[in-house]
């Protein structure tokens, strides 16, 4: 069993997601107020995005730590909603095990050191292993379901993490808040960053679940992912 997965993003008309030059005064609300309307047990982000929420301190790891087995760690703590980060090499550091009201779960590979695991345990941050060197995202979803009872998961970006789940065929819905701006920055991350060039992959198709005009000139489009892409339109 695995969670139902909804990817939620704020994008420009050209699919860019960094808002540096968009010039909105209250730019967080366009993403957050819509995200809050999607009922989910957890949100998940990539390591780059999570570093906006994790510790700003530099932690020096104690390398003489005794070896800690590479086994999943479910912290004893009261929260029932979660903030999950895809952090294969263990680059996020934590002062606390919470982001807002959500308990932090680190998704790691076995590349991480015992010293890093000791840091997570010292902060009572939960972690799961998703592979030895590379992540198996389907396995990750199964663990989130089984160990934390996460039945609905919202993936909140950035583009690389979205692209990984898209490529693995693990998205059920895509929720796009389309901002009325053209960005045009070459090289800036887009909503889905899956692969360089055109491989053998086929684009993912969607059908529309709902469309709503919000904040005057924004559109909130909710799409269902077409799982069997063989049907021609
Ligand atoms: N507009 C919006 O709605 C929105 C939402 C969220 C974020 N953002 C913006 O997006 C930007 C960040 O996006 P991003 O695409 O650069 O980064 P990201 O997706 O947040 O993080 C990418 C990192 O996550 C890890 N990762 C993701 N998928 C993986 C996989 N399948 N296997 C192993 N590791 C994986 C890797 O970490 P390592 O490098 O450590 O290996 C990778 O470099 C930020 O500027 C943020 O503000 C915008």
Key terms for this structure?
233 residues; alpha/beta; Dihydrofolate Reductase, subunit A; 2 domains; 18% helix; globular; binds NADP nicotinamide-adenine-dinucleotide phosphate
Overview of this structure, please?
With 233 residues, the chain is an alpha/beta fold. Helices cover 18% and strands 25% of the residues. The protein is built from five helices and ten strands; from the N terminus they run βαβαβββαβαβαβββ. The chain has helices spanning 27-35, 47-50, 114-122, 137-148, 159-167; strands at 4-11, 42-46, 82-86, 98-99, 102-108, 126-129, 152-155, 173-178, 206-214, 218-225. Strands 1, 2, 3, 4, 5, 6, 7, 8, 9 and 10 form a ten-stranded mixed β-sheet that branches. The radius of gyration is 18 Å and the shape is globular. The two termini are 31 Å apart.
């Amino acid at each position: 069993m695995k969670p139902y997965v909804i990817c939620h993003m704020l994008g420009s008309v050209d699919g860019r997601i960094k808002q540096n030059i968009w010039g909105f005064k209250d730019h967080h609300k366009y993403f957050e107020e819509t995200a809050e309307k999607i009922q989910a047990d957890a949100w998940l982000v990539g390591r780059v995005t999570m570093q906006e929420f994790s510790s700003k301190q530099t932690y020096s790891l104690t390398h003489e730590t005794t070896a800690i087995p590479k086994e999943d760690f479910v912290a004893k703590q009261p929260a029932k909603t979660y903030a999950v980060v895809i952090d294969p090499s263990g680059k996020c550091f934590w002062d606390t095990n919470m982001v807002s009201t959500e308990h932090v779960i680190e998704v790691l590979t076995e590349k991480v050191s015992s010293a890093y695991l000791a840091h997570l345990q010292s902060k009572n941050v939960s972690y799961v292993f998703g592979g030895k060197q590379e992540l198996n995202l389907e396995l990750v979803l199964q663990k989130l379901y089984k160990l934390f009872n996460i039945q609905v998961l919202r993936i909140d970006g950035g583009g690389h993490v979205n692209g990984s789940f898209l490529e693995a065929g693990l998205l059920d819905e895509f929720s796009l808040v389309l901002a009325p701006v053209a960005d045009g920055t070459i090289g800036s991350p887009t909503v889905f960053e899956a692969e360089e060039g055109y491989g053998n992959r086929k684009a993912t198709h969607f059908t529309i679940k709902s469309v709503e005009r919000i904040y005057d000139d924004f559109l909130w489009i909710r799409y269902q992912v077409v799982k069997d892409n063989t049907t021609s339109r």
